[in-house]
Amino acid sequence: MKDITTLRTLFCALVRSQFEYCTVVWSPQTARNINKLEKIQTRATKFILKTDVDYDTRRKQLNLLSLEDRRFLFDVLFLYKVLNGYISIDISTYIQFYTDSDGCHPRGRDELRLKKNFARTTTFKSSFFNRIVDMWNVLPLKVRQTSNISNFKKGARDFLLSRYD
After folding, report:
1. Is the CB of residue 38 less than 8 Å from the CB of residue 68?
2. What are the backbone angles phi and psi of residue 91, rounded to the nearest 5°?
3. Nearest to 46 by CA among 33, 31, 64
4. Given Cys at both, which of 8, 111, 142, 152 links 146, Cβ 3.0 to 4.6 Å?
């Protein structure tokens, strides 16, 4: 097989889908584990394009996000679905938004900014509800305020791609 589109499709369907299954639950936290997963996509992009240019260039040519960025996208998309009622889970005990009663409002705080919960154990520090706070807060307010899933996905993906430009 020499067709780049076919090889990319096969990689996404057969290999990458295995790494992304249920990442909201098991997402790796250590740099060592993140790099191990990313190396697989690095090798795949080399194989697909049959070139040794740097990894970021190959990803752009194939229109692929890094696996870490894709996990970011899945995490914030899951939270968006929960917050907007597409998935009915009560997360009010785990996630809280800043309110007017929280005292001073530093610059950049808005009605959709999440509070970071105190984590007594390292197990909770790596849980979805603790790691999602920073991810959600880094998204632009315009993206967090979107009214439907497709606009949210597009906005979040564009945000991730713009970080590399």
Report:
1. yes
2. -110, 15
3. 64
4. 152
